[in-house]
Amino acid sequence: MADMTAAVLDDVARSCLARAGAGRAVATADVVLLRRVMQVFLPLVPTVPAALLLVAGPAVALPLGFALVLSLFLVASVAAFAFARAPARSGEVAETSADGFSVDACPGLLLRLDAKGLVRAAGGRDREVFFSFLRDPIDRPFVEHVHVSDRLGFVEALADLRAGVDAVAIDLRLDRPMLGLEQSQFMNVRMDMTAVRGADGALSAVHAQILDIAGEMRIRDEARRMAGEAVDAHETKSRFLAAVSHELRTPLNAILGFSDILAGEYFGKLENDRQREYVGLIHQSGAHLLSVVNAMLDMSKIEAGRYELTLEPFAIAETISHCENMLSLQAKTRGVTLTSRLGRNLGEVVADERAVRQVLINLVGNAIKFTEAGGAITIDAGVEGGELKIVVSDTGIGIAPEKLSLIGKPFTQIHGELNRRYEGSGLGLSLVKGLTALHGGRFEMTSRPGEGTVVTVTLPADGSGIIAAADMAGPDNRVDFPPRLKADDACAARTKDEWVHDEAKAKIA
Fold it and tell me: Contact 354/391 with Cβ under 8 angstroms?
């Protein structure tokens, strides 16, 4: 009879606790505790109303007696549960070592879970902050407090610990009621779980530390937003340059074509030398502007990853000779001596001939522009160890050390004053670096102010550097542009009066 009564009371207690807990799993200890309280108050249900009948009528004594017993029962139940769980929240959790170290001094919330994920103890410096919204987590599954979308991750982490993993760290969102206008519905936390195993190696408990990572999430979001804005701005700039360059080339071709016709006097003689001079100036200015536009278009293609190389074997000596002949008149006009020294074993190389020619034209053109009358420019070329090495040296004005970090950046000019003596768009060396990087080559520059500059471009002679550049690119097919100098090369090149530039960077595909 007593067992049957206890079973009935257990069912009633379990039903009441489940209804009060909104369907959560009911702990056996809670059921036993509530059953004991009910056993104490069951005898009072008939005795208290009967005692009141001695001083009042049935209409007053019976309802008043039942209400009094029920009120006392509720108060006693709340007190019993509060008293039973107080040790679990304080004394049981506040573990202190012999040297005075306490887990309550550790930041965040510290939990001890059993192998099933039920919270058995809690501590930590921020325990009260978490307990303000965790809805009495002791002896309840911790997964109930995790956002629905993150519960699978918590369950998988617990399964990994059971499978033998020693520690797991996961990011979760904890459900939190709206406690204020400045608080969100969920708290972003990082949960670091460490397995505690028994003598047989089975998981017996889990020690977990939970830290609020709201600040870290804000930093992540801000970094992601800024990275997105930078990418959008870069793409917008590249599209703008490509569009402007393309639109400018059409009228420039017409200007050059008609100025050629006028200069050739195909449809009549010009009246005087002044007209011929003006026509020549129109053609010269148009050609200069077209070269700048072409450089802008090539630059935008390189930065957008759309510059395609056409590999073919060609005689590098002929290409160097062609560039020398093309620029010799310009050098002669400025009173500069232009010479070349080619190695004996200089045969055919595999590369994009147009790109190599453009590299040479830009390097020699820069040397002519910054070399005073009476100076000399030398082009050296040779194949060493399977690499084509092209060196363009001059006796020009050189570069000040504080200006070297600007070399190679698009649209950057070293002599940028309003009264500067040297023309240019600041794209020449940027194109050289970009085209060299596309070939998988290396770019090096040494300079002494007032003595001259030496630029060295090294390319794989068999074209294999393009494959190496693709390997460097990784999944998104991007490499550093321009390439950085190797550490040993840079250290060997830098002296007190000599500097090597390797700082400008961008990205190409």
Answer: no
CB atoms within 10 A of CB 48: 19
**Residue 452 DSSP SS3:** strand
Pairing of strands 337-342, 376-384: parallel
Q: How confident is the model at residue 6 (pLDDT cuts 50, 70, 90)?
A: confident
Ramachandran area for residue 497 (φ above 0: left; ψ -120 to 50: alpha; else beta):
alpha
Neighbours of 32 (CB within 10 A): 13
CA distance 137 to 134: 6
Report the chain's C-alpha Rg in angstroms.
41
In angstroms, what CA-CA distances link 216 with 24, 133, 189, 190? Answer: 32, 21, 10, 10
Distances (CA, A) of 25 to 139, 141, 142: 10, 8, 11
More confident residue, 422 or 212: 212
Q: How far is CA 293 from CA 78, 224, 233, 429, 450, in A?
A: 83, 34, 21, 15, 31
The per-residue pLDDT for range 140-196, each reduced to its tens digit, is: 899 988 999 999 999 999 999 999 999 999 999 998 765 554 567 788 999 999 999
Q: Please name every residue paired with 96 in a beta bridge, in sequence order, or none if there are none.
A: 102
Distance between CA atoms of residues 325 and 357, nearest Å = 12
Nearest to 37 by CA among 72, 89, 2: 72
C-alpha span between 286 and 292 (Å, rounded): 10
User: Under a CB-based contact definition with an 8 Å cutoff, are residues 123 and 89 in contact?
Assistant: no
